[in-house]
Description:
Structural class: mainly alpha
Low-confidence stretches: none
Shape: flat
Order of helices and strands: HHHHHHHHH
Helix content: over 70%
Distance between the termini: 27 Å
Amino acid sequence: MLTKLWLYEMRACGRILLPLYGALILLSLLLGFLGRFSNDAFGVILPILLIIFFGLLVAIFFVTLILLIQRFWRNLLKSEGYLMFTLPVSAYQLVGAKLLSACCWFILGGIAVSVAMLALFLQQDFDMVRLFFRDFYDGALVFIAPWRANGATVYQLLQFLLIGLSNMAQQILTLYAALSISQIPNRFRVPVAYGSFLALNYVQNFAATGLSRAIFAMDDVGKAFAALVSSPLRPFFLSLLAPYPSSFYNTLPTLTPADITLIATYLNFILAVGLITNLLYFLLSGALLKNKLNLL
């Protein structure tokens, strides 16, 4: 049943978002095509098309965010909720379907924007795009090399991606929890939802910072991350510092296996805190919808 709910949410949002994605990609192709010509008529049209293009980029983000809120608010907390809560599903399944749909559409939006930008630049200068990806790939290998040399695993290399996905889900669930909290009073629900969102963000940031400082020596964590960032750039820094005394070289942090272990432990902690927070917000939203729902 969760799959059916998720597909229903995807179709409901897709009716609005897919045309925006298609318009963005088609406009990028048109811009790339017209950009090959220096005709005066095209010179007048191009700035207008560029304004529309960047307007669509902004619109995709805000429309996705507004749909995320609207689908939860209207579909569950307004008159449509009478129908949704007669379905043979739990409140947690309803929240889960909307969470999965929101995450998918944010990811698809990012892919659509990337494809549009690639289509735009690919028509202008294929060699430039090819060199960009080659340099990006080479840079990624250079960045990863110190990690691998000091014993980092594939999982540790993917931790940043996992934390990014967790943080995306956390922001969505924070919104859902704030909207669910607004069901407790009978009046001023919009201000209550807004205030709850700000309060939840403040509490979770305060708690995460406090736990980090209680468990880790943050100065050591900072030094480890500095070593992580500077290690791939060390040859470049050394070439810049070559005219100076050798004592300058000692100021450059060197990545060690101990740094890798500390960074991996810290990232695991951040990921664990994020997942626990997501679970709490998910349970809170479901419990409030189950026990405190008051449709007006």
